[in-house]
Design goal:
By secondary structure, the chain is of the alpha+beta class. It is built from 36 helices and 17 strands. The protein is about 55% helix and about 10% strand. Helix 33 crosses helix 34. The two termini are about 40 Å apart. It is found in: Membrane. One of its GO terms (cellular component) is plasma membrane.
Length: about 1100
């Protein structure tokens, strides 16, 4: 409710969801009306079980009492026979409802059996009364009158509320007719008889009203639980479905043991960030992060390189180049899967993978060699089909490596180690069309006689790196007989596991799970554990412990407190019941004391009625306002008085203490009315006059005006006890205690205070003490409502417990989902993640074309890879990744990959700037300050890339300064970096049939790599095109001279001018960057992690 000083608006959205009409419409909209009706059948079947046991107990106790307490036992044999016979008939009739298939198919049987059961019960009761009236001339009252009405609404299997109202009304009419028949023949005072009949009618109206209320309330609670379950299960299934797709994508990129480890780390960070949202983290905490690295021995590493790739980048269009690579790499991925070889990654034309990595494989060398031959066969097919001058050079080495993930951004699985470097050198020194292997691979080949093995090429013998490690090499010449035909079949498909759940629609899964959930919804406390067994089987192998004690209180106090502190949107319903009950009591009190001298009674009656009316008005005022204005879409601002009423209503609904006080206040008001009725009795005068009548054998009608009508008070008190149990979201133990307190107080009135009055009232059986009839009626009312309220409370608590459990599941799933999404977005660009999760198939090509992108390769010079240096490399790469956070504005810098100790990044890969894409994308909003005009040339990406490269150099220098001498084992050789930059038209996207990896292709990528390879430590080496752009932005570019570039020949290249403080040397600029100031700051000086 939004409010100002004196006015406010009405917010009825939450309350409306608890409106019976809304709930019924919602069930129909969600298509759960059928399941609701089926559950109703099960629910009422459980009610019948409870009622049969209850009625057998009531009948047995009643028969025992009248048999033992009646003064002349010979007169009660008929009564015992009637009660026992009607009980037996009733149970037999209702037992048909336990035939589940029959009643589910023909629900009308439930109503018919209920009507017949009521006929048996009421017929026996009326027969007993009329028998004694006509045969023995005794005026015995009916025993099961109110009881029959109660059980009609509360226990009998009548699905439609109209049927229950009809049956309850018919029972009430029959008993009213009985009373009229008996009174007309026995009473000589017409006025007293009329008053008695009016009170009886009020009594039955009140009882029927209570029954209708209980039915409506039960219907609303069940429908609400159905809607909640539908919504929660729908969200849960959607979440699990999304999570499953995300998990499949994630596991296809990273091995599961690494992805799970990273997910745990992300979850910890999410939890920490929620607790310490603004706590700065010290720089050295970066060093304390765990590094996800594993050591793998006895594996074979395969490096494959496309020969003549550089020439392809200059002769083919970028789109044609990427399509060719996709065709080629998809074939490689399929073959790698067939031979159980783990693809690591590819760099342009370089494809490398490892055999025996994820699972120990004694045939790792054979599989790696077989894969090498398959690759050669595939490239020969592509060469022939597309008329391309390409070939394959392959190197394989067996040994030990380090595998894992380093850095913080764009995480990728990679391998390192001396043996990895050896495999790379074997590839570069190999011969096209042959597999170049080391002696370690040859030793592991089980069937070396199948291959034509030659000595290694002379180039390999002279290689200093191979000589340093004393590697002897061999060549295995390719032959098509080494490759099975089906491995080179271009139509070979991935053999993914058949997951039926993936092919089914979400709606199908939703309907199946909902039906299963509804079938397992509990109806009695006995099924409580069964409810949780569904979750237990799915989530734990340990049985769930008992959750509630005998008083239906959760053992978990926090859970119990959360349950009780729920908003009580049924407040208006039970306040209406309290008001109607109070009105009935006022009416009874007025008629019962109309001939007395109670002068203050009318004032008290008025005050009580006014108080209950005010509470009922407060409870229904919001609904009235919504009906008048908001439901008709009439905007309305409410005045101060309405706002106060709204606030009071919210306070009662939302505050447990206020709600309990309101509950006790309503009960107390009704008890005041009962007190007025009984205290106005002139007890001594009643005793004297009653004795005189019996001694002198006369009948004085004034005796009915001296004291209250005992049976009227008893029936109204039973109504109050029932009302006590109907209040929602009041502690069940408190309701039971209040009801027991009322029973205890009334027993004092019956057996002590007004024992003479109750003893000489009409009894229910011949010579049976009337006070015991009154007491037993009260006990029956208490027990009946206790068991009914207990079932209702249990159902509500189970639904709440189910909701809490499902919310916990959803929170855990959301946390997992969030960690997966964070991880995926830290591996692939967010728009690529969306495409992959929504529409991209497993082996489909996705690409984006860009007219101007700047590419950078930055390599740590003279950096030897071993386990200790990997820790250092991880910290340095992490610092580089942190620097990316400051390059997210305007033209963002994207990290592409890490290859050994080379950092690759690009600027200008904004999907808003893409010329074309293979899949339609939703336009994404540009970042703060970002411009995306169609006429813009985007040359500024080169300036941003150069600025990032300079920050990398400064960051590395800060690392050396910060950690040298502080962190044990920290050493970065010469502590310098070699950087190459080129720019131009590229293609970005995902190629291959597995392990999606966002990469870029084109001449600028190749040239940037060559600039890094031919560059010098501590310099930024750029092409002539990039140098001209940077000079226009005021950065000095020093001509280096003609530099030989593999595949391109001699080209003019430049070094950017950098001073000793790692600032660009400035020259006169002809244009300025679009932005005024970039917020970049070197990562070592930042506390943002």
């Amino acid at each position: 409710m939004s409010s100002s000083a004196n006015k406010c608006d009405l917010n009825y959205l939450e309350e409306r969801t608890w409106d019976r009409v809304y709930l019924k419409q919602k069930c129909k909209e969600l298509g759960v009306e059928g399941e609701f009706n089926a559950y109703q059948v099960r629910l009422f079947r459980s009610y019948v079980r409870v009622f049969c046991l209850l009625h057998i107990g009531v009948t047995a106790i009643h028969c025992i009492l009248i048999s033992t307490l009646s003064e002349h036992k010979k007169y009660v044999f008929f009564d015992v026979g009637i009660y026992s016979g009607s009980c037996l008939i009733l149970v037999l009739i209702l037992s048909i409802n336990f035939w589940e298939k029959l009643t589910e198919k023909h629900t009308w049987i439930m109503f018919v059996s209920s009507a017949l059961a009521c006929s048996a019960l009421v017929g026996g009761d009326l027969t007993q009364s009329l028998y004694h009236h006509y045969y023995n001339d005794w005026g015995c009252g009916s025993f099961y009158d109110t009881y029959a009405v109660y059980i009609t609404y509360l226990f009998l299997p009548i699905l439609c509320i109209q049927g229950a109202i009809f049956l309850g009304s018919m029972i009430s009419i029959m008993y009213i007719v009985l009373d009229m028949t008996v009174l007309s023949s026995r009473s000589t005072d017409g006025a007293a008889a009329i008053v008695s009949m009016v009170l009886k009618i009020v009594q039955y109206l009140s009882i029927n009203m209570l029954g209708i209320y209980c039915r409506v309330l039960n219907d609303m609670v069940v429908r609400s639980s159905f809607i909640d379950r539908h919504q929660f299960i729908k969200e849960d299934i959607s979440l699990r479905n999304a999570q499953r797709h995300e998990k499949i994508l994630l596991d296809s990129i990273l091995p599961s043991q690494f992805s799970e480890l990273l997910q745990k780390d992300i979850k910890k960070r999410i939890t920490l960030s929620t607790k310490l949202t603004s706590t700065p983290i010290n720089n050295f905490n970066v060093f304390r992060r765990s590094m996800a690295i594993q050591i793998h021995s006895d594996v074979s590493i395969l490096y494959a390189d496309v020969v003549n790739y550089t020439h392809l980048t200059t002769t083919l269009t970028v789109e044609k180049l990427v399509t060719t690579l996709h065709d080629l790499y998809a074939r490689f991925d399929l073959a790698a899967q067939y031979y159980s070889v783990q693809r690591i990654k590819f760099l342009g034309d370089c494809y490398y993978c490892v055999a025996g990595l994820m699972h120990p494989d004694p045939d790792h060398a054979n599989n790696a060699v077989a894969l090498g031959f398959a690759m050669i066969a595939h490239i020969q097919e592509v060469r022939a089909s597309q008329n391309l001058d390409i070939n394959m050079r392959i190197g394989i080495h067996s040994g030990t490596l380090y595998a894992g993930v380093i850095g913080e951004s764009k995480l990728q699985f990679d391998v390192w180690g001396p043996d990895v470097t050896i495999a790379n050198v074997l590839e570069s020194t190999g011969v096209p069309g042959a597999v170049h292997i080391s002696e370690a691979v040859l030793r592991n080949l089980g069937a070396r006689g199948e291959y034509s093995i030659q000595k290694g090429p002379e180039k390999a013998m002279k290689d200093p790196h191979l000589q340093k490690h004393r590697i002897v090499t061999f060549l295995i010449v390719f032959s098509s007989q080494y490759v099975p035909d089906f491995v080179t079949d271009a139509q070979m498909k991935l053999s993914f596991k058949d997951d039926a759940s993936l092919s089914r629609s979400v709606s199908t899964v939703l309907n199946e799970e909902l039906r299963e959930e509804y079938r397992n919804m509990p109806v009695t406390r006995i099924n409580f554990k069964a409810l949780y067994s569904i979750w237990v089987k799915k989530e734990s192998r340990y049985p769930m412990k008992k959750s509630m004690d005998f008083c239906l209180t959760f053992y978990d106090t926090d859970k119990e407190s959360a349950y009780l502190k729920q908003k009580d949107y049924f407040f208006r319903y039970y306040m209406l019941l309290a008001w109607a009950t109070g009105l009935s009591l006022v009416f009874v009190e007025i008629f019962d004391t109309m001939n007395t001298d109670c002068k203050y009674c009318f004032v008290i009656d008025f005050c009580i009625f006014l108080s209950l009316t005010i509470l009922a008005f407060i409870a229904w005022y919001k609904w009235i306002c919504w009906i008048i204005y908001n439901k008709k879409n009439k905007p309305h601002t409410y005045n101060c008085v309405s706002c106060i009423i709204f606030c009071i209503h919210e306070k009662i609904v939302g505050n447990l203490i206020v709600r309990i006080c309101t509950y006790l206040f309503a009960i107390a008001l009704n008890w005041v009315l009962i007190t007025l009725i009984v205290v106005d009795c002139r007890y001594e005068q009643f005793i004297q006059q009653y004795i005189d009548e019996r001694i002198y054998h006369y009948e004085d009608n004034e005796i009915n005006q001296i004291c209250f009508h005992p049976w009227v008070v008893t029936e109204m008190l039973s109504l109050m006890i029932c009302m006590t149990f109907t209040f929602c979201h009041i502690p069940f133990l408190l309701k039971t205690s209040v009801a027991l307190g009322q029973v205890f107080v009334y027993f004092i009135l019956i057996f002590i205070k007004f024992d003479f009055v109750f003893h000489h009232s009409t009894t229910t059986n011949p010579w049976f003490p009337s006070e015991f009839s009154h007491g037993f009626i009260i006990i029956i009312a208490f027990v009946t409502m206790y068991f009914k309220a207990r079932q209702t409370e249990f159902s509500k608590k189970v639904c709440f417990s189910w909701r809490v459990q499902l919310e916990k599941k959803q929170n855990d799933a959301l946390m997992t989902n969030r960690s997966i999404i964070i991880l995926l977005n830290n591996i692939l660009p967010s728009h690529v993640v969306d495409i992959y999760l929504s529409s991209l198939s497993q082996n489909e090509l996705y690409y984006e074309s860009y007219k101007m992108v700047s590419v950078m390769f930055a390599m740590l010079t003279n950096f030897e890879i071993n386990l200790s240096s990997l820790q250092i490399l991880n910290e340095v790469i992490t610092q580089f990744d942190v620097l990316l956070l400051y390059y997210r504005e305007f033209y963002a810098v994207e990290k592409i990959k890490i290859v050994n100790c080379t950092y690759m990044a690009a600027c200008g890969l904004d999907v808003n700037f893409a010329g074309s894409t293979s899949k339609p994308l939703k336009p994404r909003s540009a970042g703060k300050g970002r411009h995306s005009h169609s006429g813009e040339d985007h040359d500024e990406v080169v300036f941003v890339m150069a600025s990032f490269a300079l920050d990398l150099m400064q960051t590395l220098a800060s690392c050396n300064k910060a950690y040298n001498g502080i962190v044990k084992g920290y050493k970065l050789s010469d502590g310098k970096i070699t950087i190459g930059i080129s720019s131009g038209e590229i293609m970005a996207g995902i190629v291959g049939a597995s392990k999606p990896h966002y990469d870029i292709w084109g001449d600028p990528v190749n040239m940037a790599a060559r600039m890094e390879m031919t560059g010098q430590s501590g310099h930024i080496h750029v092409t002539e095109e990039s140098a001209n752009i940077l000079e226009s932005y005021g950065i000095q570019a020093n001509y280096r001279g003609q530099t030989f570039v593999k595949g391109r020949g001699l080209l003019p290249t430049y070094f950017l001018g950098i001073d000793d403080d790692f600032n660009f040397i400035r020259v006169k600029e002809t244009r300025k960057p679009i932005y005024a100031h970039r917020s970049a700051y070197i990562s070592m000086g930042s506390t943002y992690i």
